[in-house]
Amino acid sequence: MQAYEPDIEKILISEKEIAAKLVEMGTRITQDYRDSNLLLIGVLKGAFVVMADLARHIELPLEFDFMAVSSYGAATKTSGVVRILKDLDHDLEGRDVLLVEDIVDSGLTLKYLLKNLAARKPTSLEVAALLRKRGIQQVELDLRYVGFDIPNEFVVGYGLDFAEKYRNLPYVGTLRAEAYGGV
Ligand code: IMP
Ligand code: MG
Fold it and tell me: Does ligand 1 have an atom closer than 6 angstroms to the CB of 108?
C-alpha cells in the first residue's frame, strides 16, 4: 500500500501469511462449533478487519455483534483502564460466544472483557486473536485460537492503528521512528 510506504519500517506478517492463517483458524472454528449457535463478538475498532476476513472462512450460520472499549488513544502504552463505549445488542444467555480480537498485548483489556461477558451467562466463551505479543501478558489468559505470536514491538495494519491511521494496511508491520511524529 503506497500511501503508507514511507512510514513503514518492516513488514512483520505479510498479507499472504495472514490470509493462510485465517483459513486455518476458520476451519478449526467451523469444526469446533458445528451444531451450535455461534455469536461472534468483535472488539472495535481494531477487530473489524480480522472479523470480516475470519468470518468468511467459518462455514456456519453466524451472528455478529460489536463492542467498543476505550484503549490506547494516541499513545502506545496500555493503561489497564477499560471503559465500555458501545455495548452489545445481543443477549448472551445460552449463546456460544467467540470474542474476536486483533491483538492481545498486556491482556488487561481482554481480561476485563471476559469477566464482563461471562457475567452475562453465555453457554461458552472463547477467544480468537490474530496476534499475541510474546511473553508480556500481565495476566494469565486462555486463548483458544491465536494466529501469530509476535515480538514485543508496536505494530500497525490489518485493523491496528497508530493515532487512528494504518488500519487499512493489508499486512502487519512496524513504523519508522519518524512516523510517530513526536507523540
Ligand atoms: P492490552 O490491553 O494491552 O492487551 O491491549 C489493548 C488494546 O491495545 C488492543 O486491543 C489494541 O487495540 C491496542 N494495542 C495493543 N498493542 C498494540 C500494537 O502493537 N499496535 C496497535 N494497537 C495495539
Ligand atoms: Mg483492540
Answer: yes
Ligand 1 geometric centre to CA of 103 (Å): 6
- Burial class of 112 by CB neighbour count within 10 A (0 to 12, 13 to 18, 19+): middle
Q: Model-level pTM?
A: 0.92
Q: For residue 173, which of 50, 6, 5, 9 has the smallest C-alpha distance?
A: 9
What's the CA gap between 52 and 66, in Å, rounded? 12
Do residues 150 and 132 lie in contact, with contact meaning Cβ atoms separated by under 8 Å? yes
Ion ligand 2: residues, Cβ under 5 Å: 43, 46, 102
> Could you list the mean pLDDT of each consecutive 10-residue stretch along the chain, which spans 183 residues?
90 98 98 96 95 98 94 56 89 97 91 94 98 77 94 96 96 95 64
49 CB less than 6 Å from ligand 1?
Answer: no
What are the angstrom distances between the C-alpha of 49 and each of 8, 61, 181, 183?
A: 19, 19, 25, 25
State yes or no: cis peptide before 86, omega within 30 of 0. Answer: no
